[in-house]
Every structure is written in C-alpha cells, then in structure tokens.
Design brief:
Layout (H helix, E strand, L loop, with lengths): L2 H23 L8 H7 L2 H6 L12 H11 L3 H24 L5 H42 L3 H18 L9 H8 L1
Helix pairs in contact: 1-4, 1-5, 4-5, 6-7
Keywords: Coiled coil
Length: about 180
Amino acid sequence: MASNDQGHVKDFAKNRFTFLANVQACPEKFAKHRRLIDSLKTQGALAALNLEEEHVVPCSLNTLKKSAALGLDGGFKELDNLRNAVVEELERISTADLTRPDTKADLRRRLDEANKRTKQLEEDLWQVTRAFYKAMTNARSYANESKDEAMRHRCSIDERELRSMLSLAKSKFITTEQRSNNER
C-alpha cells in the first residue's frame, strides 16, 4: 500500500476520534440527535457513519480497525472506549430530558419493591443480631468455664462495650409487620 493511502486510512479513525472527543466535550449540543446516537451504538454503525462536515466518511469496520491501529496510540480499543463513553453520556442526557412524573402504577411497584427490600433487610438484621448474641453468650460461657478471673472480667468489660457500641441491648427489635400491627 502506498504511503499516501496509509495516510488516508489513518484519517478514518483519527477523524472519528476527533469528532467523538468534540461530542464528549459538549454532549448537550448533540443529545437531541437521535440518529447520531443510534449511529454510535455499535462498532459497525460507527464505521458506516457519514458526516462530511466533520470529515467522517464511511468505511468498513475492518478498515476502521486497521486505521485505528495505524493512527491511534490505543488502537481500536481507545476509539471504541470513547464511543461507548459518548453513547452513555448522550443517552443519560436524552433520557434526563424525557423524564416524566411516575404513574400511580410505577409508584405502587416501587413501593412494593421498597417494602420487599425493607423486609429482607429486617430479616438479615435479625439474623445478624441473633448471631451476635449467640457469639456473646458463647464467649461468656467460655470465659466462665476457664476459671480465670481475669478472663471473666475482660469478657464482662468487652460485652458491656459491645452492647453499648451497638445499642442492641437498649432497644427491642421490631419488624415492620409488628410495627404496623401495633399501630392499628
């Protein structure tokens, strides 16, 4: 291949890279161009992109990869990473513009999900609390069985310190279900 042809091949990736860098620098300017976003979603669509005013002309994906290997320090991976970042940013901006208030059904679904998550977290907390008290009870019994007064004293101090740090001994654990029953 002649050196002039190689120079032209290098431009395929360089011009796309420059264009993508410009889009990344000012994504708001391009966020409303749905066709552009669609053209950046896949590697093949990026290769087929035709923006003459940006000196981006269509080529095959293999040609674009070769061009990136010749003209970009990071090769095609660098160009593809930039493409993905730009698509992500453009979609974030375009969906932020389209956000609408949630419907009652959406809110009800989100509430149900939050209630399920809360119930799961309460169950997890209960398991951790039971394990904590079991470990403290075992430590106390081991200390009492050791017949070592210093060990018993140390265990007593550690137990008081742990209880005060976690405040588990001060308040009763009430689940959401129990709380709602008490409120009725």
